[in-house]
Request: fold
Amino acid sequence: MDAWIKAITIEDVPCQYHDMINTIGLEAFLALMQSHGGTYYYIPKADQVLRKVRDDKIKAEYRGGNYKALAIKYGLTEITIRRIVEGNNPQLPGQVDLFQALNATGTG
Reply:
């Protein structure tokens, strides 16, 4: 079978795969075909993979209040910077946590 694979040219491959072959090369395509043929994969967009790298850089550059500077530098909103730095539910300055407030008043 390996000898047959080496004889394959781009003309032998269905045209719906030609874009991939033009991107990664015939040799890489044939290697993928041999190792993963018959399976389906979703290839994520680059920004999905790069988001973690970006977020790690933002966290490393965070200095305890430079939300606006980071937002400008990375083209994001200050809220997005807060979510990256503080987690998914950042507390804004002056914002009171409802459950803490209820517990403090004895009604919770």
In short: The two ends are 71 Å apart (CA to CA). The CA atoms of residues 13 and 21 lie 9 Å apart. The first helix runs from residue 2 to 6.
